[in-house]
Amino acid sequence: MGVGNLKWSRPEQLEDLLCELVSWDSRTGTIGEIEFSTKMLKKLLELQYFQENSSQIHFHDAGKGRNAVTALYSSGVTNKTIVLMSHFDTVHTEEFGGSLEDLAFQPRLLTEEFKRRIADLPDDVQVDVASNEYLFGRGTMDMKMGIVLHLHLLERACVEQWPINILFLTVPDEEVNSSGMRAAVKGLVELRELYQLEYELFLNSEPSFSQKPQDDNYYIYSGTIGKIMPSALFYGKETHAGEPLSGITSHFMASYLTRAMEFNSDFVEEVYGEKTPLPVCLQQVDLKEDYSTQTSHHSAALYNVFLMRQNADDIMKIFKDTAIRAMVDCSKDYKAVCEREGAQPLGEINVLEYKELLSYAKEKIGGAEVRVILEDIMSNESLDERQMSMLISDRLLLRCQDLAPAVVLFYAPPYYPAVNSSENELVQEKIALAQKVLREEFHVEAKQVHYFNGISDLSYVNYDTADSGWQSYQNNTPVWGETYSIPFKEMQQLQAPVLNIGPFGKDAHKLTERLHKKSAFLYTPRVLEKVIESMFAVIMS
Question: Residue 27: beta bridge partners?
Fold first, then answer.
């Protein structure tokens, strides 16, 4: 395949395009994230194919003014289609500080500045700065380079009339709630019907992440790890600090569950020799708004659990069992203190799922009143979905205090289902091909990882058609169907294997985020070309 008059093909052209896309500051939740889709539209219209077929570019509403963007190159000779997936939002840049923050989105200038400040950098970063093999900047690695690689492939397909269909997809809000990809799922289903497409492969180009510190290995991923947040509202009984045993604090209750949850191996999975990280508490929130000598009787905690083969129903069962055992221990210790101090203990601590609380509340105060409570909280734009979930559970239990002391178990967004295609013959073939190209043409060894460890939007495609465990998530997520939802049924319609091949980089989400230039501008473009070429029995010249 000759480069001809291609504009996004040679290494220097790819670097120029990367620097341009990085300069489009698109931090999650900023105006730049909103404007990126329009800028991408203009970039796509630089290609003659899309000037002539602009109707094949679509926006997909992701809320808050943001849009996912799709662009279809249709070969006209087959329905078989490869979906190229990426995200264009980046994390924020507070860690850059005043003097460097202006350079965060200017990779060449930032890289030169790091050369001047090399003595202030960690030893491993100094080595990479001195090597001249890395380009620094927010989004260089995660994941503006992935977009560049996909634009490169899209241009080649258009100009050289590849006998395949390429559906380019780039989305906002991957870094927070994946609103972009969740919106794009329905778009993918609609486009499949509109253009009679057959999705053969979902190909992401998230970067190759280190598995451990100082890890320079290059990885190819045949799946993506899942993440879910089982959460709990702790509702005790308030009292004056001078009479502590007349009640029970929510913090006392929470301490038992948090201790039982953190590092709990019951949640750990091991598949293909890879293990999920241990669960931890991501946040504990005191829902008492003002300081006083009244004890705090309501608080909440959010726990992070990673998944491989388990679903939301599996996790809730383990979570509930853990909570019940934790509250048994809590009650036992509390009663021992009361006996020691000659105080009368409260009753047992109830443990119930959110769906049980919701059903109880509807029966006690009526569905209309419950609806008022939910709408009042979800109409508050200053709250995010996690805060809303805590407050809904809290407000409902406030109206059902006969259940207290109690622990209400719920799910807080986001949820990323695990997806894996390691057993798929096509994926096995493509990974072997990618490894062969890297080894023979560039003397680079690439290792397969079965579950991408950085969380990715691949979670929202190729969902198991036989899985119904998601209903547990729907039933126990307080904001479900209002401010947050996952299109599980549509995801089950997007049945094609997943694969992630991206450039090598280091320190994603850090000040020293950097991209390996040869990997980005030489190795990975070649690998992706060969992988796509091999999908079809056509010689490309």
Answer: 90
